[in-house]
Amino acid sequence: MTSPTVPGALHDPLAPEPEAPASTREIPIALKVIGALLLVIALAIPMLASAVPGGTAPPPRPLAIAPRGPAPAKAPVEAPAASAQAQVLDDGSDEAFRAQAEAAVLRKLGPVARREGARLMLFVEQGRPVMLDSRRPEPDDGGQTPYVDFRLDGISPDQGFYVVRVTLAFGSEVLWISRKNGQRYEMHGNVHPSPDGRYLVVTHASPGAEFNGVVVWALEGDRLVERYKFEATPEQRGVSFRFMRWRDASTIELEQFAEVDPSTCSTGTLSSLALLARKSERWILRSNSSPRCDA
After folding, report:
1. Out of the domains of life, which is the source (predicted)?
2. CA-to-CA distance for 164 and 149, rounded, in angstroms?
3. Is 86 helix (H, G, I), strand (E, B) or coil?
4. CA-CA distance, 35 to 138, in Å (whole number)?
5. Crossing angle of helices 94-109 and 80-89, rounded to 10°
6. 226 and 213 in contact (C-beta within 8 Å)?
7. Can you give the residue range of the structural domain that contains 110?
8. Which one of 202, 206, 223, 290 has the fewest beta carbons within 10 angstroms of its own beta carbon?
9. What distance in Å separates the CA atoms of residue 202 and residue 214, rounded to the nearest whole number?
């Protein structure tokens, strides 16, 4: 018979331990299970991300190492306008020849003149630049747009004028344009300065609608003043002149031609020498030899 427990009595070592509540044993086990699941998921995510269809992983990409030294230069990209201009320059036509000659002049002059497509721009001291627009009719234009091509030939001997050659559908013209204010002068042909540079003479022969005759200009500062002009009338279309030389600063030697009937001259042309001389402020044209039949 067991004696009742008395306070202060000794503990019986053979007596069984009291059982702990069930909840205190299950909590640590549940935490371990959750931790194991999280570890499995963490390991599985990289494997799933690297997987590819077919079960084969892609090979590792090689690591490229840039060579030392400067990067290779990129090929220049040619602008469409420049490419079109190059095609014009290489087609072997008269227009291409004029374009090549103008390109050399523009390179020599620098920023005072430039071309932008069909537009020639000439910069002057006073006022806005002079803009000359060439025109090329389209095939289906029906003749509504006349052909005109402006090309810069260079600078006048006194450096005061731009020299521009104008090619038309039928004929040509030469313009002198003041570099100071842009004033334009129709010179009709090539200019021949006098030995002292004070006067300019131009001769042009044309059987058509162009100018046919002789003009003398006086160079006064930055402008030109017409001092003499002979222009053949419709009845004188058979008469023309060609510049030969300046005899002195006031006398010009010319060659004169006249179309005649073949019964008079087998070649149909008589030629003679003429002088255009300045007397005070007047210029006088006169024959200087008898006509002869050109062989």
Report:
1. Bacteria
2. 10
3. helix
4. 85
5. 120
6. no
7. 81-186
8. 290
9. 6
